[in-house]
Amino acid sequence: MRRDVFQAIADPTRREIINLLAHQKMNLNAVAENFPVSRPAISKHIKILTECGLIIIEQQGRERYCAAKLDQLNEVSAWINQYKQLWEAKFDSLEVYLGQLQAKKKRSPRKKTAK
Prior knowledge:
Layout: H1 5-10, H2 12-23, E1 26-27, H3 28-32, H4 39-51, E2 55-60, E3 63-68, H5 73-107
Antiparallel strand pairs: 1-3, 2-3
């Protein structure tokens, strides 16, 4: 079953696995040593990441090494970018509005309050 990239990054353990593998290839035991969960649990996370295409497993002799393949994160980046543009436009509009309010305050004289 092909999983969704968003499923993969939804879990903090999987995000940390991606982070580890982004810096260097590691065998499964080396990956598992970085987490307080069992090796079978890490293997399940690795399986999900492999199904999403975020990591690849290469056999080298008797060892299996995991390496990050981060091309799939472009899909996430594109999705986030559309919302980033939307929010930047909203904040730009807010900045203009606040500037207009400040300009109005400077133009209108303050009324003195009676004591």
